[in-house]
């Protein structure tokens, strides 16, 4: 069983930065694909960024160039550095882990960006 705990959310102003962290426990996730999703009120959950075990990253178009996903395998932790935040980035952000067979979610952390 994998447990994912997100932290780092909060209330910021447009243009500010935040760094989200996702600490994993239960097993070593060095070979797993890790990802961040978000869900705004009244909208479907959407992918934000992902990083494979070998460090390959992908981003949704709206965050490309502003957000950076990274991982520290020694700490079993994945990060999402969010710069130049916009009000439309407001959402609950979820961490996810995939082994290719199983999938786990964290409980989410709220990010609110005021204009």
Describe, in plain words, how this protein is organized in 3D.
With 115 residues, the protein is mostly beta strands. The chain contains no helices and 11 strands. The protein starts with a strand and ends with a strand.
Q: In short, what is this structure?
A:
By secondary structure, the protein is mainly beta.
State the main characteristics.
115 residues, mainly beta, 7-stranded mixed β-sheet, 11 strands, single chain, globular, 4-stranded antiparallel β-sheet
Layout of helices and strands, plus pairs?
Blueprint: E1 3-7, E2 10-13, E3 18-25, E4 33-39, E5 46-51, E6 57-59, E7 67-72, E8 77-82, E9 91-98, E10 103-105, E11 109-114
Parallel strand pairs: 2-11
Antiparallel strand pairs: 1-3, 3-8, 4-5, 4-9, 5-6, 7-8, 9-10, 9-11
Order of helices and strands: EEEEEEEEEEE
Helical coverage, percent range = under 10%
Residue-averaged pLDDT: 96
Total helices: the number is 0
């Amino acid at each position: 069983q994998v447990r994912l705990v997100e932290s780092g959310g909060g209330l910021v102003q447009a243009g500010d930065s935040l760094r989200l962290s996702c600490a994993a426990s239960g097993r070593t996730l060095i070979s797993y694909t890790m990802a961040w999703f978000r869900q705004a009120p009244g909208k479907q959950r959407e992918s934000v960024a992902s990083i494979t075990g070998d460090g390959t990253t992908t981003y949704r178009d709206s965050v490309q160039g502003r957000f950076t996903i990274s991982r520290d395998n020694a700490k079993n932790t994945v990060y999402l550095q969010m710069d130049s935040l916009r009000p439309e980035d407001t959402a609950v952000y979820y961490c996810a882990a995939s082994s290719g067979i199983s999938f786990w979610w964290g409980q989410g952390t709220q990010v609110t960006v005021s204009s």
